[in-house]
Amino acid sequence: MISADPRHSAGLAAQDLTCQRSGITVFSGLSFSLAPGELLRLQGPNGSGKSSLLRMLAGLLPLAAGTLNYAGAMVTEDWADFQEKLHYTGHLDPVKPALTVAENLGFWVRLAGMPAENILPALEKFGIAGIADIPARFLSAGQRRRLSLARLAAITRPVWLLDEPTVALDQAAISRFAELTADHLAKGGIAIAATHTDLGLAHTRVVEFTKTGSPCATSF
């Protein structure tokens, strides 16, 4: 049995979130509450607000209205502290073409103050340890995505914000990602992912976004 990580023992709650871009309301009235070990899956058409919500939660877009709490504390009072507790992966993979696969991941590991010993096991989790010394400019789209996701395995963070994490992945890589996510949740972590891929994980809530500007109610 996997024991809960004491660093992953806090819940995340949003109340009446509103997002506006260029004066236009993207969505409003969005509320959810996630306990440790839960995944929130965001679904909906392009432009409905899924990516904007993730960027808001990461502190990259301002909250037009609403509140966000983590571990009982108001996130807006100290965004920097909350950002140190999360992983955010966007559409673009943060990969430097001139660096090798291992050097790319090593940069993020050092930046997070994690041990270098985490690099190779994280690459192994996504099946790219065999190309650790290859410059990233030679990677396929799927390999670049696996390298980006390897940060999740190498650096311990309790909250994951994932924007289309399975794009460009084959079924084997999706299965590896699902296993890693399941392990994260089993240890008490929280994940919010904009994806149409059903990872088959228990304790998953769903928010369905629409083009009307307001997401549908959360289901469990």
Characteristic terms for this protein:
2 domains, Rossmann fold, five-stranded parallel sheet, 24% strand, 6 helices, single chain, 220 residues, globular, alpha/beta, four-stranded antiparallel sheet
SSE topology:
Layout (H helix, E strand, L loop, with lengths): L11 E10 L2 E11 L4 E5 L6 H8 L7 E6 L2 E2 L4 H5 L2 E4 L11 H11 L7 H7 L15 H14 L4 E5 L7 H16 L3 E5 L9 E5 L12
Helix pairs in contact: 3-5, 4-5
What does this molecule look like?
With 220 residues, the protein is α/β, with parallel strands linked by helices. It folds into 2 domains: 116 residues, P-loop containing nucleotide triphosphate hydrolases (Rossmann fold, 3-Layer(aba) Sandwich), CATH 3.40.50; 71 residues. The chain is built from 6 helices and 9 strands. The strands form 2 sheets. It has a 5-stranded parallel sheet with strand order 6-7-8-3-9, with helices on both faces. α4 packs across α5. The mean pLDDT is 92.
